[in-house]
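Exercise: predict the fold of this chain.
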Amino acid sequence: MTRPRTGRGRLLLVLALATAVTAFTATVPLLRGFFDLRVYYGTVHTWVHHGGLIYDYRVPGTRYGFTYPPFAAVLMLPLAPLGRNTAIAASLVLSTAALGVVLRVLAGDRWRCYGWYRWSLALCALALFEPLRDTFSFGQVNVVLLALVLTDARLLAGGRGRWAGAGIGLAAAVKLTPALFIGMLLLAGRRRAAAQATAVVAAATALAALVDPAASRFYWTRALWDTGRVGRLDYVSNQSLQGVLARLGETGRPLWALAALATLCVWAWRTRRAARAGDWGAAFALTAAAACLVSPITWVHHLVWLLPSFAVLLRAGHRRVAGALYAVLCTSVVWLWVDDASGLDGFLGSNLYTWLTLGLLLGLPVRQPRAALALPRARSASAIPAAPSTASPAPTAVPDQSSSGAPDVAAATGAADAVGRGLGRSASSEPTGST
């Protein structure tokens, strides 16, 4: 494909792509009807206006209700005075702002260098990304939590670690899965940040217990351990290790615990290595991938946490690999096995996003530790040619426009550089619950 070389040609290309993407997202994928936002909205309104309990509410006609810790309900209290349409608008605005933060962090300080054209191509590519489509269509909070966590990544990479940890702590207080990032801070030797994150979680949990003691008692003693409140483990949207086992008919906890433990061992080894090298982008991306794998339930929209992994791949120059993996996550291919995941094709196809996430955990490129990169002292400094900077590749290394797929467009935005510096068929009427 010939690249447009004039401003008018670029504008026409962007308009054509935006039109095609809009038509695709409006007609081909299953629209989720803001189901999770309906859970949040109904829970808060029942709690505030009708004196109901947080965990007693169910979306009419379903068995699904609120599954987050009580602190999440406290944060969602601003929904109480809003009408439903206003709440939907507020959700879209908040998610869009959070996505802007995510892209700003991944693009780094040179984000202005890439111009409207490259950013427009990147946004068209992101609109095709199934986890992100579902996040917006469900009215989900995951992109907001990702923004909080990546804010801490930016602080650590920028040498302002004394303030890091609060974002991770707040995200973990809203939803348990991001708590694994506290483990990442400990592996990296950032005890102050880990302590700050833990303190935020504790304070938020205590606040929720003060606001509604009965809800807190119910959640931590009963609701937390009942995965049936969230959804079926074997539902094809569950792209965690537990989901793989459930689709094989193995619903017991021992085998899942063993698989999760093995995954966490690999995560700890690779994350510690990334932290030693000061590669915060890889450390956060590895942690996000591991969290998706070991969580008992990881719906497809939770895989928005894989976005930092693609930035790391682009930074390392693996543009074709990033493009292929990104394209798979735009296809909704796992839904082909929504009714029957039996046989070899079902085992491979219905779990495809899990295999992709596992591949990222095992193969995501990580920079070597600084000690391994040190030059031999015996050689004269004048005899050693200058090494190219890994922090700021020359702008000419990034083509003006990629024609090889969605993640190549992301490469044009410079996300790879930033992380290197530290940072159709209807699926089913079965909802995935508010998780």
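Check your answer against the key: The radius of gyration is 22 Å.
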